[in-house]
Amino acid sequence: MIRMRVYTGSFIAVLCIIVNSYCAYAQSAAEVFKEANSLYNEEKYEAARRQYEQCAEDGKITSAEIFYNIGNCYFREKDLGRALLNYKRAFNLHPRDKAIRANISFVRSLVQYKVNDNRNWYMRTAERFLSYVTINELEVGVLLFLFFFLMISLRRLFAHKKKGLQRLSFWCMFFFIASLGALCTKAYPLLFAQEAVIIADEAPVRSGPLSADAVAFRLSPGIEVLITAGKDSWHKIELVSGEEGWIEAENIECVTVT
Q1: Is 225 helix (H, G, I), strand (E, B) or coil?
Q2: I want to staple 209 with a disulfide (CB 3.0 to 4.6 A). Which of 72, 121, 234, 252 is the partner?
Q3: How many whole angstroms separate alpha carbon 237 and alpha carbon 108?
Q4: Pair 135, 125: CB distance under 8 Å
Q5: Is 154 a domain residue?
Q6: What percent of the chain stands above pLDDT 70?
Q7: pTM score
């Protein structure tokens, strides 16, 4: 009995330490974020950005708001590439936010090099529709509709009147297939490529992964690309226009934070 009390007391003590540490950590993050907001309001954009980035890098705050604020700082510093990069990071976390979508559209309109979207119309339509939901939301939808379908199917085994349940089962299966198709459509490109943004003032795209290879074309900051392969310090990229080539890794940054 005494030993049990000792174990219980030790467990409570450890739990209290963990809770206190977490509270102190959260308070520290909130203070840094508040200080960054104050610096931004004082138009000290570089200092504010460093504070925001420190929060994001330490994992203290990983929300759409912090990436949105980092994007605003870069925009004020006239760095369109990194501004768009962080707006897209915010967008991936909160795709229905009107301010984020508006800022992305505005920065895209300022990018010098215009890329024609030569993809099929149905791919463009699907991307536009699916841009309002995250992959996590689609995964939840798939699991929920599957769960409801299985529960209704199980209920049908013991029900006397099955007509209503049959109709409900049909619609659950329909929405399960629809949400699964949407999930596959959104996730499939990211299985073989990574979204990225050009951050260099001028980025030469070459025909191969060597500095001696011929320059195929040049890209300006803010151009959005897909990274499809890599070799040493080079990335193979593809544009929505169908153009592709090799670019040095220092000229580009992935949207996904690793």
Answers
A1: strand
A2: 234
A3: 19
A4: no
A5: yes
A6: 84
A7: 0.82
